[in-house]
Amino acid sequence: MIRLITDTPGFFNDIGEVIRLFLGEVVIRPDEGDTVYLHTHRQEADEWVECFQLNDGEIVEHRSPVVRGELLEKRMLKRAVKTCCFLLMVKQTGVYPPCGSLTGIRPTRLMYELTDSGLSIPEAAKRLQETFYVSPEKAGLLSEILLMQQGLIERPEREFDLYLGIPFCTTRCAYCSFSSGELGNGKLVEPYVQALLREI
C-alpha cells in the first residue's frame, strides 16, 4: 500500500494514475501506507515549483511557468504536478513508458491542439516528446494518424460523425480511460459485432 501526501489534494487521483503507470494496480491512500510519496507545491516569482520525495529519500523538483486563467491554470498546474511525479517514478524505477506521462487523455487530441496553434505535424510530435516524454515511436505513430485523418476532421454541413466503438485492443495502453479490454483469443469479437449490427 502507498501513502500519498500532497498539498494539492484536487490532483490526488491524477498523481495516482502516474504512479500506477509504473507500479500497476496498487492501493494509494492519503492516510496510510508503507511507501510514502510526499508532494509539495509552491510558487517562486513567476514559476511553479513541484517537489516529490519518496520515503524521506529520493527527491525530484520540477519548475514550470505560472499560468493564469481559471481553466487553463488548473490544466497547466495539473500537468506540472503529474510531470514531476513522472520524473520521480522514472528515477525510482528506470522505466520509460512509451506514452510518457500521458494518462487519461487521447494523445491525438494533444497533437491537434498543437497543430491548431500553428505547429507543423513534425513540430507537434517533437513537442509531445519534450513536454510529455512520449517515445519517438509513439510520436511517429501519432504523426501518421494525423496525416491519415487530414481532410476527415472538418466535415461538410448537413453531415455528421458516427463513432462505433470496438472495445478490443491487442494490448491495453496504460494511459487509456476507454471502456475496453485486451483482445485475448478474440472469442468475444464476433458476438459483439453481431450485437452491434442488430442495434444498428
Helix-strand sequence: EHEEEEHHHHEEH
Q: What is the radius of gyration computed over CA atoms, rounded to a whole number of angstroms?
A: 20 Å
Structural class: alpha/beta
Strand order of the largest sheet: 2-1-3-4-5
Largest sheet: 5 strands, mixed
**Low confidence ranges:** none
What's the quaternary structure here? single chain
Task: Describe the protein.
- The chain has helices at residues 12-23, 70-93, 107-116, 121-132, 136-149, 189-199, and strands at 2-6, 28-29, 35-44, 47-54, 59-65, 168-169, 181-182.
- It has 200 residues and is of the alpha/beta class.
- A five-stranded mixed β-sheet has the order 2-1-3-4-5, covered by helices on one side. Strands 6-7 form a two-stranded parallel sheet.
- Helix 3 (107-116) crosses helix 4, helix 3 crosses helix 5 (136-149) and helix 4 packs antiparallel against helix 5.
- The radius of gyration is 20 Å and the shape is globular.
List the helices and strands and how they pair.
Blueprint: E1 2-6, H1 12-23, E2 28-29, E3 35-44, E4 47-54, E5 59-65, H2 70-93, H3 107-116, H4 121-132, H5 136-149, E6 168-169, E7 181-182, H6 189-199
Parallel strand pairs: 1-2, 1-3, 6-7
Antiparallel strand pairs: 3-4, 4-5
